């Protein structure tokens, strides 16, 4: 059996390691590697890109841009950094958006979505597409993530036995309101402005809960949260990795735990509310649908593999 040749450039970081681990178990994939002394050698890396059927970039933005600028034009590349997510020459790797899977199938360059952005776009984009949410409405977004989203350095800080007491409580970051996911959050929802975005990291390894509050008076042509839940259900029907729950679906304890989807590559959507307000919520794993899972999903689509191959649904 012939195998797909895959190169993971940056396989020592959190996302790269998880992609490498996933693909190492696949019978139809051959992972291309470099010896340690050549791991940062541009020419050696470019040679692997040219040899591979697809390359994952798990690098800082500048390093991704450098490699892409020198890579063969026909090379299939999935970039997990923020470097190309709003670049019009790249396809955004959120397959569940209308028409996006077909674009990914044909693409040579795919930008894997950011974790916070994944939840926000999943909740807002369908409302804009259907004319329910005005594009000039001032949105806000609250997002709670596990500490693995900060990479190796943050993981080490949280797992340090002598860590400071501050690590025991949730911590808000991105206080300058210039989080790196904001450009894609605005561009991919087609909103005129980015949301007021409050990201929070807390003392659990992985998982994510993204929420967007809305007054019903801001919406057009709908009058209830139940109608919104039905709209999501229609929009995401037959999407393998997204589940939309009926309006007001509550866990037994009445609370949404952000780590409930840790270890999964799928995403679930909830809608709550009353006669005047609604709350949209997306729950998933920041390392799954928010990172390596989404990257592998894009690879599967680009190579014509089963979309959920290697994924935990």
Automatic annotation (TrEMBL):
GO terms for cellular component: cytoplasm. Pfam families: Semialdhyde_dh, Semialdhyde_dhC_1. InterPro entries: AGPR (IPR050085), AGPR_dimerisation_dom (IPR058924), AGPR_type-2 (IPR010136), NAD(P)-bd_dom_sf (IPR036291), Semialdehyde_DH_NAD-bd (IPR000534). Its EC number is 1.2.1.38. Signal peptide: none annotated. One of its GO terms (molecular function) is NAD binding. Its main location: cytoplasm. It catalyses: N-acetyl-L-glutamate 5-semialdehyde + phosphate + NADP(+) = N-acetyl-L-glutamyl 5-phosphate + NADPH + H(+). Pathway: Amino-acid biosynthesis; L-arginine biosynthesis; N(2)-acetyl-L-ornithine from L-glutamate: step 3/4. PANTHER family: N-ACETYL-GAMMA-GLUTAMYL-PHOSPHATE REDUCTASE, CHLOROPLASTIC-RELATED, N-ACETYL-GAMMA-GLUTAMYL-PHOSPHATE REDUCTASE, CHLOROPLASTIC-RELATED-RELATED. Belongs to the NAGSA dehydrogenase family. Type 2 subfamily. NCBIfam families: argC_other. This is N-acetyl-gamma-glutamyl-phosphate reductase.
């Amino acid at each position: 059996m012939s195998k797909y040749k895959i190169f993971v450039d940056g396989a020592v970081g959190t996302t790269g390691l998880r992609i490498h681990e996933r693909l190492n178990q696949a019978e139809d994939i051959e992972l291309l590697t470099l010896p340690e002394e050549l791991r940062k050698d541009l020419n050696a890396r470019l040679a692997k890109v040219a040899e591979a059927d697809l390359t994952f970039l798990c690098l800082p933005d500048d390093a991704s841009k450098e490699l892409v600028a020198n890579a063969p034009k026909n090379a299939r590349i999935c970039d997990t950094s923020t470097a190309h997510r709003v670049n019009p020459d790249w396809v955004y790797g959120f397959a569940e958006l209308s028409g996006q899977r077909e674009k990914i199938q044909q693409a040579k360059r795919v930008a894997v979505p950011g974790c916070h952005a994944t939840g926000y776009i999943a909740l807002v984009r369908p409302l804009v597409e259907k004319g329910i949410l005005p594009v000039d409405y001032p949105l806000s977004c609250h997002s709670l993530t596990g500490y693995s989203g900060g990479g190796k350095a943050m993981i080490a800080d949280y797992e340090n036995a002598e860590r400071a007491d501050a690590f025991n409580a949730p911590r808000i970051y991105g206080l300058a309101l210039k989080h790196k996911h904001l450009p894609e959050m605005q561009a991919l929802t087609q909103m005129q402005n980015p949301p007021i975005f409050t990201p929070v990291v807390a003392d659990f390894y992985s998982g994510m809960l993204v929420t967007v509050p809305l007054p019903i008076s801001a919406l057009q042509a709908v009058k209830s949260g139940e109608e919104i839940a039905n709209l999501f259900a229609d929009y995401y029907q037959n999407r393998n990795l997204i589940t939309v729950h009926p309006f007001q679906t509550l866990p037994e304890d009445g609370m949404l735990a952000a780590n409930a989807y840790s270890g999964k590559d799928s995403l679930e959507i909830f809608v709550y509310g009353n006669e005047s307000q609604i709350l949209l919520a997306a729950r998933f794993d920041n390392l799954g649908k928010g990172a390596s899972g989404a990257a592998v999903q894009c690879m599967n689509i680009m190579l014509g593999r089963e979309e959920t191959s290697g994924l935990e649904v």
